[in-house]
Amino acid sequence: MTLFPLLADLSGRPVLVVGGGEVAVRKIEALLRAGARVRVHARALDPVLQGWLEQGRLTRLDGEFDPAWLDGVWLLVAATDDHAFNARLAEQAHARGLWANVVDDAQLSSVQIPAVVDRAPLQVAISSGGAAPMLARRIRERLEIELDHSLGDFATLFARHRDAIRKRFPALPQRRRWFDRVIDGPVSVLLRNGRHEDAERAFRDALESDRDDDNAGSVALVGAGDGDPGSLTLKALRVLNQADVLVCDPALPAAVIDMARRDATRLTAPQDREALVELLVRHAGNAMRVAYIKAGDAFRMAPDSALRAVLERRNVVCEVIAGVCDGPARAPGA
């Protein structure tokens, strides 16, 4: 089956869901989140749906199913366990030119409802065309791990300044280059750390700058925990996959270093503190995303806990990512 991917605006639009069980709950929850006006026909309602009905979040249609209920709705979702009834519903919807989704039956459906990773207003939809829904869900689980929740704030930032961006960079190639610089720059780091005002300021500075090379880099101070790659946090893995330069403590196990992006430049951290700071500042100043990784939870403990403040005084955007340790933070083998 060849599907054309699209995202539908159902805000304020009527949708008919037939079925009142657990599957219907999942579908209706997504529809309500999208702002749809949900009408439900079912012999019995799941307690969750009954609660939503009492709250006025949906409307119930009682009695025997009336095909006239399909008139004026935008979408039919058939979520009953009666295949023959679902087939009749789909046929009646198709005759009216309506989109119809029959749960777990791709052949009867004219529209599929995908697995979704929601970073509103950013959304990623995954569909197997009904062939392997569990595979689509597994991919969604992986993307949930990979895609930081701050991406929604990032997308909102772009949306809020959309007109100013188009006015500032009217030519598409110029606008693309600017987007690349901002996406790879420090704004995302600031958002990940909840520094929204600083992110807004950095975004505006990038928008107002006349330079094409004004994209400053950033430094992430990553705690590697007890040296087991499986103990790295999801945030640490994201940073290691994004780093252009990896600065490694000499005591760091090779297995942890191997978790980083393959084409990242790998450097051994100098033992001299001033030399280390200069190394980090130089690479960040060359628009690189730098990850300095050290065993334990070093960057939240003295003396390494002071490194973030030192870098920020040098105008380097910096974040600290905690290391997970069973006991007191220590280097492997210590």
What does this structure look like?
The protein is α/β, with parallel strands linked by helices. It folds into four domains: 14-113, Rossmann fold, CATH 3.40.50.720; 116-146, Double Stranded RNA Binding Domain (2-Layer Sandwich); 148-215; 216-334, Cobalt-precorrin-4 Transmethylase, domain 1 (3-Layer(aba) Sandwich), CATH 3.40.1010.10. Helices cover 38% and strands 16% of the residues. The chain has 13 helices and twelve strands. The protein has a five-stranded parallel sheet, sandwiched between helices. It has a five-stranded parallel sheet with strand order 10-9-11-8-12, sandwiched between helices. β1, α1 (22-33) and β2 (37-41) form a beta-alpha-beta unit. The protein is elongated. The model is unreliable at 328-334 (pLDDT under 50). This is precorrin-2 dehydrogenase. Residues 121-144 form the Siroheme synthase central domain.
